[in-house]
Batch of 3 targets.
Target 1
Amino acid sequence: MLRRSLIVVFTIMLISCGNDKSEIEENNQVLTLYTHRHYDTDKEIFKAFEEKSGIKINVVKANADELIQKMESEGDQSPADLLLTVDAGRLVRAKSKNLLQAANSDIISSIVPAHLRDQDNFWFGLTKRARVIVYDKNKIDPSELSTYEDLTNDKWKNKLLIRSSGNIYNQSLMASIIANNGEEVAKDWAAGIVNNFARTPKGNDRDQVKSILAGEGELAIINTYYLGKLINSLDPIEVEAGKAVVVFFPNQEDRGTHINISGIGVAKFAPNKENAIKFIEYLISKEVQEKFASANYEYPVNAEASSSELLNSWGTFKEDKLNLSKLGELNKKAVILFDEVKWQ
Amino acid sequence: MRFDLKHFKRDLNQWSLYTVAISLFIAIPVFTIIFHLFNGKGEMWDHIVTYFLLDYVLNSIALLFGTGIICFSLGTASAWIVTKYDFPYRKLIEWLLFMPLAIPSYIVAYSYVGLLGNGGTFIRFLNMFGIPIKKIEMMNIYGLIAVLSFSLFPYVYAGTRAMFKSYPNSIRESAYLLGASEIRYFFSVALPLASPAIIGGLFLVFMEVLNDYGAAKYYGINTFTTGIFRTWTALEDIQSSIYLSALLVVLALFILAIVKWFRGKKSYALKFNNEDKTKRYNLVGYKKIYLIVVFIPILAGFVFPVFQLLIWAVQTFEVIFNYALFSIVIQSVLVALFTALIIVLIALLLIYFSRWSILKTPRFFPKIATLGYVIPGAIIGIGIIRSSNSIIVFFDTYLDLKVGYLFYGSSVVLIYAYIFRFLAVGYNSIEANTLKLGKHLEQTSYLLGIDKFVTFVKIDLPLLRNSIISAFVLVFIDTLKELPLTLILKPYDLNTLAVKAYEYAEDERVAEASIPALLLISTIVILITLINYKKSKTN
């Protein structure tokens, strides 16, 4: 029995190896995408590209950190052509680890604004998300709200909800505050926020909004993208929570609201660089950008693309034009400061 | 572990060599981690020690104690009731007690927030009856202990039940004749005799607890594993995260040493019967309240979470459900079956090679090979990618062979990683039973001039059949649920249910994750049912 099972095992192994080889040889036109985005919308967009161009897209989905580690470990053997992340910081990190290369394309440069891309064209923003304040419309008068900095005011004591400091969007927000106000002010800011916590940070962005509905706090800092998902959720409780709050864009009188991007860069050892650039151009085209906005509630980077009805209903806003490279450079500093003020 | 130079020559036989070779090959990622330790501490290490280390240690210890006590109580008590008493639907209940294993712990964690959190299903139910409660807070360390215990106690239940079942009636009768009460019999005879199985089960529970990432992260509890990820991703210091992993391995070794010590203290060679012929008593009168003991774990570990998942599934059915999901079911099952098969084979090889060798040292090596169970999947992933990259470069430079596709395009590396990760599951459950077999049967066989291999196939294999099947099932379930390794090592065209569920949950779309999660659960439920059915038929 043992011997027979061994034979079976090895046969299966051989078969599985054989299959993979032939498949690689068949497809000449391929593109390998390492992505942190797990959205069904993306799948449709990729499929449309495959049909249009005849280029097959291999997708590896994992967390950006794991993907970066994977690219690093694979070295020049890496099959990756593109790295797609949900924040600028990871792209900056990939660039600094020498895992990306410049992609010079007039089309891309003309569409993606300068502050949303790397100065050497190593990566580009595809969509934007704003980190905003949402508040309980029954308890808070919006004229009381102004800036991120104002949230450390004593009047918000025990009222503020925000997730843990392990989250990348909080880290990026902190990085933007360091970049704008300096390290010391930023540390005091974080300490002030901790001081105003309605509860120890837990759960995700959606849970913060649900907590407002339950009366555990009165305002929260969350990502617009998640609010869009909440309002359009299939779970009636989530919809109720999403509708119970109102969006407030902070810092409109000064630098603007903090934004982050979902962005993409061409891998240093990309076997299919040309296809990769073609694909980026496709992703920032008006039609695809509108799809991101309507189906995934992300703000387009292409100025010609109209954003969706829901996004428009929150109003237009002035965004912080800080170059997003800064977010990556200051990310680690941000985490260290978070730890020092004991932001869970 | 004792090493006598005097006996070196005697002990140096082929079986020792095989054991050592296989163990070392499987343990490569452990060595990668140890090797990295010599690179010195990472730059953020002092920061971690100042702000987090105490937190990690205390929380992990609290979790181990809490889940240990609850899993021990739930697991042994329920195993006792179903083996000692007879009551309506007993068979169904015995089977339902395994079911919590079918749900990944992080899904259980999410579903409890769905039930008891703000606007949760159960909360609204209470509100309907005029109980003005907002929520029951689950997202703290007590909630995490509860959730992990509910989903992990079957590890204790499984082994203990098999043990209780195998007690010959004579033990119990002797105890009663000597005037022992039922309670005294349970605590002084039944439990101590089952200790290898209980300890083996608890060991698996502890490893799962140490390795949990999703549930702890969602509930906002800092543990070693969340710390390893945080250090790696947020503090950008992989060196320190390897330090933390090494500490985790030390903690695991410590637990392993305790397990060995417990097992080493006593050894029993009873004539156990492997078939379910134990006389059962009917549950009558006030004793019916014993049933609470079996209902609580079933409800908490299976019925409630599945109920919440079903509610979500109904909400999301139209958007999420499509027939392509079934191809994912098939892929997941194939990979898991294949992995389980190989792991059982390797576990048997290791156990028997080291039994056949006289040297004490080789017996230590399989333990190293089973350490993968405690190392966070993502760290194993890194270790494996690094090692396989060296192999690819080696083949490319020296032999001019392009073997990269073997690593990136096929499941070979993924399955190796699964073996490293889950060998402990298969190994421990089979080993506990080989200890029980004693050596007299095989020694008799050797005396009759039958060689080792034939003895193994004809005597040990049939006797171990049930434990091999349960090892197979446990590995299958674990592989099907596995996430981090699958994410980073899987080939492009392979998709698993766990990955699919995670993709939604990661994006805070927990309700949408319910359909893949339910498919995962049903797959496991169907498999366990099939195996139970087959078992009862052949018995």
Note: Residues 150 and 305 of chain A are 33 Å apart (CA to CA).
Target 2
Amino acid sequence: MSVVSSFLTVWRHPERLIGMAPAQQDLMLRMARCSGLLATLDARLQQSGTLDQLAPRIQDLLEGVRIYAANQERAVRWEVNRIQRAFFGTGLPVILLKGAAYHLRNLPWSRGRLTSDVDLLLPEESLPAAEACLKQHGWVAAITDPYDQRYYRQWMHELPPLHHPLRQTELDLHHAIVPRTSRLCFDARLLLERLQPVPGHPGVWTLCPEDMMLHAVVHLCHDGDFQRMAWRDLLDIDAFFQEFSSDADFGTRLMARAEALGLRPSLELAARLLTRVVGTPLPAGLAGQIRQHAGGICESCMVHLLVPRHPDGQGVDPGTLLAQELLYIRSHWLRMPLWLLLPHLTRKWVRNWSSDVWPRRSL
Amino acid sequence: MRICDLTLVQASARLAGDGLYWGVGPFIVRLKSRLPDFNHTFYRLYAHHRLLEPDFGGVSDFHIDLHPSRGMRRFWHPQVFFALDGPTGLAPFPLDHAVPLFEWGFNYAIARRANQYLLLHAAVVARGDRAMVLPALPGSGKSTLCAALVARGWRLLSDEFAAIRPATGLIHPIPRPIALKNASIAIIRAFHPEAIIGPTFPKTRKGNVAHMQPPAASVQAEEEPARPVWVVSPKYQPDLKRPVLDPMSQDHGFMRLAGHSFNYELLGARGFATATALARACRCFELGFADLEAAVALLDGLAAADAGAA
């Protein structure tokens, strides 16, 4: 059995970890850790009631990551509370995206999910008021470089990140889920029409389940940092499908929604990746509608990279490097037209090469 | 088996190959490095640490790889990187500073992962199973005092971490080399000429740094936790003729401990409960000192008196 299929087995059936040889267990734990999934695996082991059958040293190691994840979740919940306090009386809505939304909705796979920053969605016209309000309440700009500031404000789907110096937290204010300049850009007001309140948290909203899932799909398919985050995005989507698998209409609604937002190709790509890499059966109502084709170069690159890396770097072949480069170019290609892209990449390249550790030897 | 049971050549071969498996306190490390200078110093400083065979039948807590720059940077001002299960965000060091990078990176690795312990930023030494916690302010002389106590027979638990199990309140040893900075290097060489001290690395982020090998007895007792008995907050005061040991309330002791912690906040309520229990179990003091020999004698006296009272 290959390393990856072993890992997927453990992912699906955490109790199988118990019977493995120590060296194999070590590898599985490391792979989970490298993809930011160790605390999630720990939560799954707890759910399966098999945690105490593992060697004490493994339980010890998992306890460390469990406490770490619990603190992150606590911090996210507290941050949402602080945002509510800052927005109180201003009429600004608190709409959570991604990890914070999963946590506050208590979605099952949010247990142990590492979430380091909070992402908010706001109507575009409310952004200036929201930013000013947050700055009054202690948040500051996390990046001060004027070029980066301008880049975010002019072209991105979010403002430059905010940082809270006392709590050491990061906050992103989005007005859309894809960049303005992207070829996939759609009117974000469509998302605002279908918000759902979070039970138990008056005044806090999230996207509807279909939109939450499509956001994860967009993140998976179009983020440049494919190797680092994509595997977790894919398993998020996998978890969505499992969660809503009992809902017979979910697949149909999802496809209709993707169609309406112009995200059908992305959803199809994500569904194919899920089938090819994880082997997840697709929900009824979706399976029949996914156009099955061999997939282009990009899709092959993605499959190649989605396979979790061996932590010792084995398997980093020229093909992987090439695939990384191609996807990096693709993510930028989708993000903005060439006349914007070339000056931007040139600037980033010059900046990366001009900085150097050596002249600052006594750091 | 101890690392010194291998020859340098054997140890280097493991480091350069699939990795050297070794243990320190509760942790197992797999370390890879092809840097001959680093391997040589590591072999000296960690000579007494326990050696594991690659098929020891367990999982490792840390897989660390020290590797030099790749590509053109191999030739132009080469650097060394600290990888922990893959790349970390740690800035590389110049290639000849692999030892300080390893020590610093290993601290980072423990502080980031070992949240099953409350990790205070403090040196810990012990007489038998009675531990003295020395919380640190930068420049307070914590490491120097710790090295001096260890040189005079105290057991070293750690120069950097007081690792406390919330369930038991016991402090678990992580005995590693003591990092001596700047003037302390010469002071400890003079104070304890038999000390094994590695090369001095100039101009690191903390100035000049050299590492003192922990005593074999401290390393061999690495699985014996100690109970906290004293909190002594040291402060080096060059004008002081005699060392002064002032009692400090347990409240202040608590603030000293919690205020210098790697993960006190991360542990939430558990961190608070553990730190208060620690302060309540201890007699707390502030120690002003200039002369090391006199300071050690004073703390020896404290330990002897408390042993007599108990």
Note: The first strand of chain B starts at residue 20 and ends at 24.
Target 3
Amino acid sequence: MTTVTKKDPVFVVVQLSGGNDFMNTLVPYSNKRYYDNRKFLNIAPEDVLPLDNTLGWHPEMAPFKELYDRGMVAVVQGIGYPDSNRSHFRGMDIMHTCTPNEISTVGWLGSVLEQLDPGKENPLTGVNFGVGLPRAMSKAGVPVTSVSNLDEYGLMSGLAAEDQRDKALKIFKDMYAQAIGSGPVMDYLSRTGSDVISGADLIKVAPEKYESTVEYGDSQIAKSLRDVARVHTADLGTRVFYTQQGGYDTHANQLPSQPGLFRDLSRAVNDFFADLEEHDADDNVVMLIFSEFGRRIADNGSGTDHGSGGGAYLVGKPVVGGLYSEYPSLEPDKWAKGEDLEHTIDFRGIYGTVLEQWMGLEASPVVYGNFEQIHPFKNS
Amino acid sequence: MSSNDLKLKAHLLRRAGFGASPKELDQVADKSYEDIVEDLLHPDKAEEINMDYIKRYNPELRYPDTHPLHAGFWIWRMINTKKPLEEKIALFWHHVFATAWYKGEHTPSQIEQIETFRKNGLSNIKQILNDLAKDPAMNYWLDNCENHSDQPNENWGRELLELFSMGVGNYSEEDIKQASRAFTGWTFEQPLPLYPYGNYETKFVFDKSDHDFGEKTFLGRTGDFNGEDIIDIICEERATALFICRHLYNFFVEDEPQIPAWNIEPPRNPEAIDQMIDVLMSNDGEMLPLLRFMFNSEFFKDSMYKKVKNPCELIAGTLKLTGTYGIMPKQGEEVGKLYGIGSVMGQALMNPPTVEGWHTGHEWIDGGTLNERVNFAVNQFNDLSVPGLSDIISRLGDHVKSSELLDKCLEIIGPFELGKQAYDALNEYAEAVGDLDLTNDASIELNNEYIARMVQLILSTREYQFA
């Protein structure tokens, strides 16, 4: 690995679930085609926060623009893959497994965790914040800790009194102890139960140790990123964090809901990096923000339908800020399926960029092939 | 009646239904096992569920919209139904014919599909496949509405053979093409537009003008086949009987390897599967004789702890025990919540991940879902006022020796058995609690807490993760 960091490289993934409308995130405000197609759902030129004289940020993204202006954001324009799937689940599935042409249950970060901790020594190598483990993080036999509420995480967390909880947990441990001849599924349950307990034991120091002057907002994504910050600054050896912000499947509600989502997201990301900076813990952290697909080029009079060709963002101190790849063409003869933005870079190339240039891992066994990469890191 | 006998009945009700509360077990205590099987097989004779209160409490249920609400409502039905096998067989077919809301986002047709599984789920394989082929939710899910006489779409034709009837390796690519042609013109009536009043129901239509009436050769037979003819032929094949029986075995008896491995991995119990195939084929695809045979078989009776509970079984079974989410809902018992609980355990009902359905068995469990499963069950007994807890306590009698507490609790809430580790650990807890005098009003709260904790710990065991 050529990147110089104080500690092991850490990777934070933020998934915008539901399919974010890239064209109204980074608005091509000088392009007539944009206004021709977005008759109803457009951001007026005077409202955008200009990035340059062709592109401007959504007006609610000021805190994110601030990070960009400080050179901490690499914008990956036109991320996607051939023949984009418009189903949320399938679209997300493809982004999670890197297999557009077959159904797989092997998450790409599951494979990464397996490489990072082959001996399964630290159940906190990968930590997800949210309800339910995303497929990206799951791979058979790879322990991952999945936390829905850091302050109440762990088995028996519903038992109010701490001494009662401790007693119950001790009994739980005894009940889940491995025994010879109990069968493979019982054994599997034992292992999983033990992993959950040791993960919870380790992670509970994070809220205890953490102090910060940064005051996050009270959105869900703010809570989740604060949890990432608390665990990262506690130095528990976590290398991959995962979390998501839901609600991007806005359809007819795009006009009222997208601004709120962007407001929450951009403030939370800005606060997160301020928090890391305060703890002098930002040298080794890179964040990827992505969505499963973009929206249709033309609006449908009230909102936007599922489309393709979105945007992704790599954020952090080790990043060389700027625009990467190309903004998808708005010329009708360049549209995918006659109505979608055509992607200009494959998402597997962006994963590969992070894996090889940031994490120091070999990409092709994880993303199944070699895809064009970008070069968004300092010293790489 | 021996405890062993009751254990077997509880096992039957867990598998053919969603478990039984102690009261429900009382109701079948005097019936023979075989009679209980017959009752389960004839839901038409059982009492209808009273839905007045639940609909008054959740007025949105009157409209066939909002998928999480209706998916949660299904779990409520699993808890409260007097026809447990009707709901269980609907869940079975939902596992096999996995159709997800996320593609069409059309809730009325999803609800209707499950209702069809309730109505026809115990009938005949041929009937079930024909209804499925005409089901609007399935039709849209697998693009048969895009299957035109001049431009066939093979999605439905392929999955009908691969995932719904015969399994890979029993037909050719050409058979898929021919089958797809036979289903051209099978589509649905365009429902009224979504806006401004929400989604409307739809129904099957056969569009003659879009049907390919030409000759087809399918699995060696030739004729101007329609979809019904294709299903007739499929149902004659032993491969179909094998596939359906293996699914039934996997769902009701014992966890099998995951479906994609079925053409390479033999069944866990080939003899049982062979017997089931014979029963199904000699009864022309009728489901009742097959299920009667299966539930009364020795292999079924011997299958305790051989199947991991799916999230619906875990949720509905646990809530039957607490006596919450009943016919008369209490404050805070919104049915939509039940969908969310299932989702975080990996089973978003009416919204399976793919047409392959859910991976079952131990794949239900990972670090995240085990945490959810255990905490869910434990948290249901944090509230000492739940009716199920009072019922358990009243059944314990007046005085409980510490050496009896665990056995008695297991008897009441199972009855089921624990492995040595769990048994020893819980007896140690009982010893620490000491003998309980449940007649002493002064210690009533403390005693209730002790017993609730014992129940919580039993529900946290590995053994409780099994159906």
Note: Chain A has a mean pLDDT of 90.
